Amino acid sequence: MTSGWAELPLELLLQSLETFDSHSEQRYPVLLACALVCRPWALCAQAILFRRVIPRVGRYTSISRHSVNQLVAVLATETPRADFLARHVHAMGLHIGIDVHYRGDDEQHADLDSLSRLLKACPQLRELSITQAALAPPGNVFNTYQMQRIRDHPSMVRLKLKADCNPPAIMYQLLHAWPGLHELDIVAWTLSPTPTNLPPRCSLKSVSAATYGDPSALLAAAAPDVKRLACGLNSLGCISRISHSLKELTVDCTYPLRTLGDEARVADMLASCCALEHVDFQCAAICPATLLDALPATVTWLRIQCTVNATLLANLLRRRPNLKHVEVDMLTVRFRHDYTDLRQVCASSNVRLSRTQEVVAV
Question: In a designed cystine with 142, which of 146, 164, 244, 286 is the match (CB 3.0 to 4.6 A)?
């Protein structure tokens, strides 16, 4: 009896979504009923009811190919009922390629054909998150027919890409296909040059580049007026291209700059960011003092998620009267009065010093 449900259509889910308004308070009882009566489809039901299509996760990172096929069958069949369901989907997360950690019947993730069908089927989709593993040519890029399906998506504004080594080859295809794209998050070992035959048609306002590569070419092509940037310390030289527009900067300081010359050069670039307001230093044992000193006078909000010397911070606040909000994870002090002096500077300058977790004497 249980196995028979797997072959049945999603009648309960379909009728429920057609019966109840999308803002109805009865959505949660409907979800429970779907899960109890039609268990094999429960995860697809949850994904659609909560407007997030993320197929089930199996052993390790494996995502069932069968789950992806279910989603294609439910959302991309070009029927009135499928169109109704697809309009509920606002976010989608998929793995594409092959799961290198798991060998079995479900080792194959979604392919680009399934992805293109789902993208075409969901006109209200605003956010796409893709994790790519072990894709090889020619299956690592959209073909002509697949590009026709995804071109000029009416609602897409945010794209997240995570690659096993190099950036997904589809990245520049998507930047070319979606002129309305505003946000890009990329996790990859390096960044490839912008293809001359696929110039980005979008103008990104937010870019997060977790990569050892230099994002300068990407910013020049797809984000010349970017407002928010997150990157590694050794990629910070890219801000020279966007110093006129950058307002929010997040710097991963895990790996220090290679030479003192690099540090001075980057500090000069940071000082030239005339529109910068929010700065966040992350993931380092000690916050780079040179970069703190180089913060432009326009910065009003500062978060330091690493260790900083209390005296250094107090001197910075004295020189930066516009700095009104400071968050610090850990302070180091040489003498007890160093911390007292910092608090007095904050009080006299009306600076809000928050999230200080620990004071360590050195």
Answer: 146
